[in-house]
Write a structure and sequence with these properties.
alpha+beta; 143 residues; 4-stranded antiparallel sheet
Amino acid sequence: MRFLLSCVLGLCLLTVAHADPVEPPRGSALRAELLDTIRRDVEPRFGGPVEFVVDILLVQDRRAIANLTAQHPGGAPIDLTTTPLVTVEGIPPDLIDGPTVQAYLYRPGTYWQIVEYSIGATDAWWWGWDCRNYGDFFPEPLC
């Protein structure tokens, strides 16, 4: 009986601990931490400092997803033809769908890390990617 009660209580705690994905508020440390994690990887590919316009930024427990548009600090648009994406990596500009960034993140300990990301994706590869781990971020029929 005590074992059964412990199991039921454990399941209740797991259910309570599992929250829906939420967007970290503007100005919050969590939002800054997530965007800075992405920024570290994408700034060299854009050729300099960037700031993000956030379309989607959701967190659930130790997982997060982001759909962003990069721009120069202050809001100036990024000319992709002058970025290392084109000039160094050799990606043709017509194969880059703007300065968009999609990313999946995970926090295994005390810091966030990028699991997968893309810049200027020409398809929605990220929509429903890895449903086993990130399915709660998407509508039911998708995952």
